[in-house]
């Protein structure tokens, strides 16, 4: 703090150097940060995964599951049964099957009041059954879950997963070594059912009140230690993919990921992450490219903060979970793993989890994966985001010093001019008079001077704080307004997508137009100060974000750092326009639309440009609705964070571009050049 | 001399007649493919529990009488349990027991320092049963005012300051507890029904509970004299799924058939409950069928008198296909769970289910460890959306590291209702030495005890207060049937520090010390001598360099 408050600090050699080279330094930091982050995918830098928790004893026991025919029977029966239930879960069949196995069987009802548009209510039903462990008093539990997908579902079917689950339950109920209860859970409506079940189990509401009504449930089994979510699409699969990305970018403990991976490999099944096998390529460059692609596909998924499976909702409750997704390969010969293999993988995994004495705490919770067996720990990736965030901080500091220097030079210049006008005699006389003045007089004089109303030369704190607060008010409005407008829109017959997208666009446009209406041009110093505050806010927000979700922080930093570096109050009119246009391109709304357009384009490369445009527009409208719904139901804070921090600071920076340049700065610049 | 011998023999006979031993085994099929087997060993002894004559034991275990006399005990209940009794599907057991270890004792009213005696008693029992009962002290004990009344005969006013209750939910019960327990029996496990207790078999069950109960009883009907009674029980619940199929035999359950009765036993019998819907045949044919009416329900038992048999194994053979019935839960059962996530604040919910058609009066006893500070003002009792007022509320706040939180709630449960009692608590920070070795396992909160006098004896197997054997529970209709339901234990994760950090610090410190040691050793052991050096010019240096 001493550096910031001590007025003489600006005179140091280091500070002068910083003022001279800060722009170059920022560019350097940015480049190094990005290059370093990309380099992390290289197996030269990252390390291979290992088991940290010894209690897991993975793969030490011989698998005993044999009952392949039973699983096949369940599968055939379920296929037949599913035909009777077009759009809902065949719960009588499931309940009967679980009850026949002698499990404690329960259902859980939930309902959803759709938070947007015209009020709609949806209901759902989960089915779950519990094997009571003979070795414990229902204090701890493990979960095996399957999202039930009716025939009309757009997602890949999961009937085989339910067959495997039942066969595994039949096997597990006979065993006497269980020390943790096993909950078999079949959820309805994808993540909604899972969220409702978890909320009911823990007696909490994570999203907005009265949106997802999770209800109550009867059977419980103590604190849940780990969960495996099954999404096996076909009775015969060729490879198994482990999905880990959770809500708000949370990840499971790396030990659990390793465990399920090891079990799959033990049963001789090829294991993928992001549908990519772990490959060792001879060429260092190619090896890096391959690993980098894997890592980036994880970064993209994690950055959205949307879980890519039901596992992602467990993390909030301190439960480690992964999804095992089984695909059949296009080549039918390579699909060799059937129910038998997968049930054995489950057996191995659950028996290992059963060994756990303590909850998962040993291995990493924050990491990136570049292959199924390579990881980048938080210690490795944090410097990258720190380097990027440092560009904001350094620029802010340099600006602050500049502000102080300018104050100094102003005073000096003022004094110098006066001196020039007066002859030396007069100066001497004046000095004599000054010397004659008592201490008290000086103080009085000083006070009078400082009481003067702030003019252009001073930081207009009032002005700055008004702009700062207003821009954040706009951010808040953007967070909440679209929701209300969707209700209003519904009464006028507009679709939820249209009203939300329209509101967002309109409010954003208002924010853009507002500074244009102000006649009085903001003063340079005030704008410089505003710039500093905005820089600090973005820098801090990015570091905080990186603690939780490195991917989104990296993404935002990579986009915003170069643009914010260019934002300075300048005199040159054309520069100002260039700045403004560039900054308009950086509006979160624009970035969001562009991102979606790029994704659409890559997803449908054969479509004509016009088609892609309409497709992208539709996708963005829906994406916006989904992000709001996610924040309402699941407590996903991506939308809230973007509107409240990034839209607000965007507005601050935007306002900065309207600032007039200070003449003294130009002089200094010339001098330094 | 001869006369003296006669006199001694007579005295001996008289003293022998003063005590008796009964061994019983109850086998009862439960709902959902389970088999409940309850061993009941009862020793009655007509003796003054406070006098030295307690030490002259015959059938009564001397170890118990020493503990009783030494710690001035009036009544003692111990249970060591693995697993949880599932009231909802299994009905009521003969003896209720909480998961882990549970001890409660009444001390005689002339005890001077109850806490001291209690602590010493826990330590003695710990040695006797090889259990970690020595962890019991005043910081985790409470003295409930309503719930745990004397079950034996009492003279004068009852004062709960002489009662202590404690439970150790973390305790893991295994063979090492069963072996010393068996040694307390007159025939040990060498003969009689106790020979069925093979550790290898009885620990492969869904639930097993070992219990000891000592209490004073009336020696005669008029209750002019007091006697003592010791009940030793083992409760097991077998799962047919784990056994392979439901055609059970004694040999499959316990590893061996029954060889003979304990010669010291007055009575030795096996009862098989036949009143299940799913009928089965017994082999060999039972000696007797007993039909017992109790509290409006009829039960049929097959009785085997072990005294009359040769070595045998009882086999049950079910006919026809397995039927899966709908479970009809008992009138009252309960469960307990934790709400919330994270490590800031949480809640505990105790749910009571009243399936009876009338009101039920219950007392809920909750015993929270000191590291779970509860907030009484957050307590909410709800029944189907309505707020319920407790009829009695006893609360003694705990104290950090000194005293457990004690809460006792009297409630009148509306008919056919679900009542939830919720209370909030905070997570506290512990001192680093207070964490157990596996700190990340979590910390236990013991089960709640829900006591009620049920008006019906449906699914009820308990022994009446005036009885001491299973045979006493036949045709024993009373005005109420006492159940003391135990709920699940809970596990909470307190904020736990990274315990590998001290290790890292040690490593770092050792490295620093090692690095510092070398130079220090050099400086202190080597002598420093000044050496005159002449300054050479650069050209000279080069010359000397090239000369080499």
From TrEMBL, chain A:
Domain of life: Eukaryota
Record keywords, A-Z: Membrane, Transmembrane, Transmembrane helix
Ranges annotated as spanning the membrane: 21-42, 375-398, 459-478, 498-517, 529-548, 554-570, 582-604, 637-656
Pfam families assigned: Gaa1
Protein name: Glycosylphosphatidylinositol anchor attachment 1 protein
TrEMBL record, chain B:
Keywords of the record: Membrane, Signal, Transmembrane, Transmembrane helix
Cross-referenced InterPro entries: PIG-T
UniProt keyword Membrane present: yes
Keyword Zinc annotated: no
Transmembrane segments: 501-520
Signal peptide positions on this chain: 1-16
Alphabetical list of Pfam families matching this protein: Gpi16
UniProt-recorded name of the protein: GPI transamidase component PIG-T
Organism: Nicrophorus vespilloides (Boreal carrion beetle)
Gene from which this protein is expressed: LOC108568259
């Amino acid at each position: 703090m001493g550096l910031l408050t001590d007025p003489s600090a600006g005179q140091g050699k280091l500070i002068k150097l910083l003022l001279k080279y800060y722009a170059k330094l920022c560019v350097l930091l940015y480049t190094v940060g990005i290059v370093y982050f990309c380099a992390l995918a290289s197996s030269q830098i990252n390390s291979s995964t290992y088991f940290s928790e010894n209690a897991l004893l993975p793969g030490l026991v011989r698998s005993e599951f044999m009952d392949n025919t039973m699983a096949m029977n369940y599968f055939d029966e379920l296929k037949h049964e599913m035909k009777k239930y077009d759009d809902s879960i065949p719960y009588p069949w499931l309940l009967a099957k679980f009850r026949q196995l002698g499990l404690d069987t329960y259902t859980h009802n939930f309902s959803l009041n759709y938070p947007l548009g015209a009020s709609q209510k949806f209901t759902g039903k989960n089915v779950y059954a519990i094997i009571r462990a003979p070795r414990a008093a229902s204090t701890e539990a493990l979960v095996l879950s399957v999202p039930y997908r009716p025939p009309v579902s757009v997602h890949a079917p999961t009937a085989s997963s339910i067959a495997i689950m039942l066969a595994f339950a039949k096997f597990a109920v006979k065993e006497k070594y269980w020390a943790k209860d096993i909950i078999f859970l079949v959820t309805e409506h994808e993540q909604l059912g899972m969220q409702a079940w978890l909320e009911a189990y823990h007696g909490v509401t994570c999203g907005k009140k009265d949106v997802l009504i999770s209800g109550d449930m009867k059977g419980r089994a103590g604190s849940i230690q780990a969960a495996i979510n099954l999404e096996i699409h076909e009775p015969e699969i060729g490879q198994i993919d482990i999905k880990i990305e959770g809500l708000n970018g949370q990840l499971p403990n790396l030990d659990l990921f390793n465990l399920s991976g090891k079990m799959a490999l033990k049963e001789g099944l090829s294991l993928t992450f992001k549908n990519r096998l772990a490959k060792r390529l001879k060429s260092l460059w190619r090896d890096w490219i391959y690993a980098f692609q894997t890592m980036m596909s994880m970064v993209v998924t994690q950055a959205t903060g949307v879980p890519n499976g039901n596992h992602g909702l467990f993390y909030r409750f301190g439960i480690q979970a992964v999804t095992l997704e089984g695909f059949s390969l296009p080549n039918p010969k390579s699909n060799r793993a059937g129910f038998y293999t997968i049930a054995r993988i489950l057996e191995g995994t659950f028996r290992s989890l059963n060994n756990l004495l303590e909850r998962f705490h040993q291995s990493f919770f924050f990491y990136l994966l570049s292959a199924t067996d390579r990881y980048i720990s938080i210690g490795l990736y944090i410097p990258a985001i720190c380097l990027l965030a440092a560009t904001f901080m350094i620029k802010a500091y340099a600006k602050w010093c500049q502000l102080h220097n300018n104050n100094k030079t102003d005073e000096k210049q003022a004094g110098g001019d006066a001196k020039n006008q007066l002859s030396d005699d007069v100066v001497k006389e004046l000095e004599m008079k000054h010397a004659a003045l008592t201490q008290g007089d000086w103080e009085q004089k000083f006070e009078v001077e400082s009481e003067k109303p702030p003019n252009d030369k001073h930081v207009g704190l009032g002005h700055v704080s008004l702009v700062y607060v207003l821009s954040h008010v706009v951010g808040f409005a953007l967070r909440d307004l679209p929701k209300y407008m969707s209700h209003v829109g519904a009464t006028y017959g507009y679709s939820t997508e249209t009203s939300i997208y329209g509101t967002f666009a309109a409010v954003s446009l208002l924010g853009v137009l507002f500074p244009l209406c102000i006649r009085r041009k903001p003063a340079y110093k005030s704008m410089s100060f505003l710039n500093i505050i905005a820089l600090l806010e973005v820098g801090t927000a990015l570091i905080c974000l990186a603690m939780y979700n490195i991917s989104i922080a990296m993404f935002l930093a990579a986009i915003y750092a170069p643009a914010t570096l260019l934002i300075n109050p300048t005199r040159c009119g054309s520069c100002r326009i260039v700045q403004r246009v560039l900054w308009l391109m950086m509006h979160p709304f624009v970035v969001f639309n562009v991102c979606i357009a790029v994704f659409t384009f890559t997803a449908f490369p054969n479509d004509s440009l016009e088609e892609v445009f309409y497709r992208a527009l539709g996708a963005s409208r829906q994406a916006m609705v989904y992000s709001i719904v996610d924040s309402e139901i699941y407590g996903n804070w991506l939308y809230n964070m973007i509107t409240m921090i990034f839209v607000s600071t965007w507005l601050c920076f935007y306002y900065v571009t309207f600032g007039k340049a200070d003449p003294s700065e130009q002089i200094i610049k010339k001098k330094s050049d | 001399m001869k006369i003296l011998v006669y006199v001694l023999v007579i005295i001996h006979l008289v003293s022998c007649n003063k005590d008796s031993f009964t061994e019983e085994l109850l086998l009862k099929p439960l709902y959902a493919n389970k088999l409940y087997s309850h061993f009941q060993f009862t020793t009655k002894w007509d003796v003054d529990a406070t006098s030295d004559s307690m030490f002259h034991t015959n059938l009564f275990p001397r170890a118990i009488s020493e503990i009783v006399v030494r710690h001035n005990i009036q009544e003692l209940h111990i249970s060591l349990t693995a697993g949880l009794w599932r009231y909802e599907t299994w009905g009521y057991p003969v003896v209720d027991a909480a998961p882990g270890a549970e001890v409660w004792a009444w001390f005689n009213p002339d005890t001077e320092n109850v806490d001291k005696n209690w602590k010493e008693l826990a330590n003695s029992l710990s040695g006797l049963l090889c259990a970690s009962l020595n962890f019991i002290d005043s910081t985790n004990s409470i003295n409930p005012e309503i719930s745990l009344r004397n079950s034996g005969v009492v003279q004068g006013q009852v004062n709960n300051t002489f009662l202590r209750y404690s439970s150790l939910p973390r305790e893991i019960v295994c063979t090492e507890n069963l072996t010393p327990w068996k040694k307390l029996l007159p025939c040990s496990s060498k003969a009689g029904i106790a020979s069925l207790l093979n550790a290898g078999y009885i620990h492969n069950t869904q639930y097993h509970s070992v219990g000891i109960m000592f209490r004073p009883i009336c020696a005669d009907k008029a209750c002019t004299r007091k006697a003592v009674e010791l009940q030793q029980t083992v409760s097991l619940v077998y799962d047919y799924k784990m056994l392979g199929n439901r055609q059970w035999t004694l040999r499959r359950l316990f590893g061996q058939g029954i060889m003979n009765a304990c010669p010291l036993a007055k009575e030795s019998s096996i009862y098989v409950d036949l009143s299940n819907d799913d009928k089965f045949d017994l082999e060999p044919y039972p000696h007797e069928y007993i039909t017992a009416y109790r509290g409006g329900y009829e039960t049929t038992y097959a009785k085997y008198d072990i005294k009359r048999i040769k070595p045998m194994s009882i086999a049950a053979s079910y006919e026809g296909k397995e039927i899966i019935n709908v479970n009809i839960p008992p009138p009252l059962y309960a469960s307990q769970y934790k709400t919330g996530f994270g490590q800031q604040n949480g809640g505990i919910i105790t749910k009571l289910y009243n399936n009876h058609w009338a009101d039920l009066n219950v007392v809920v006893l909750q015993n929270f460890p000191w590291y779970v500070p509860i907030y009484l003002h957050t307590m909410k009792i709800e029944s189907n959306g309505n707020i319920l007022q407790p009829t009695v509320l006893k609360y003694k706040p705990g104290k950090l590291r000194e005293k457990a939180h004690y809460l006792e709630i009297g409630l009148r449960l509306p008919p056919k209702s679900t009542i939830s009692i919720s209370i909030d608590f905070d997570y506290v920070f512990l001192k680093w030495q207070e964490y157990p070795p596996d700190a990340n396992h979590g910390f236990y909160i013991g089960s709640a005890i829900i006591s009620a006098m049920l008006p019906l004896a449906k699914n009820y197997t308990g022994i009446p207060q005036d009885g001491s054997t299973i045979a006493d529970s036949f045709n024993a209709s009373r005005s109420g049937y006492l159940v003391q339901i135990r709920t699940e234990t809970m596990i909470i994760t307190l904020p736990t520090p990274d315990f590998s950090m001290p290790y890292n610090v040690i490593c770092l410190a050792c490295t620093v010390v090692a690095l510092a040691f070398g130079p220090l050793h050099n400086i202190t052991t080597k002598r420093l001598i000044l050496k005159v050096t002449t300054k050479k010019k650069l050209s000279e240096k080069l010359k000397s360099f090239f000369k080499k």
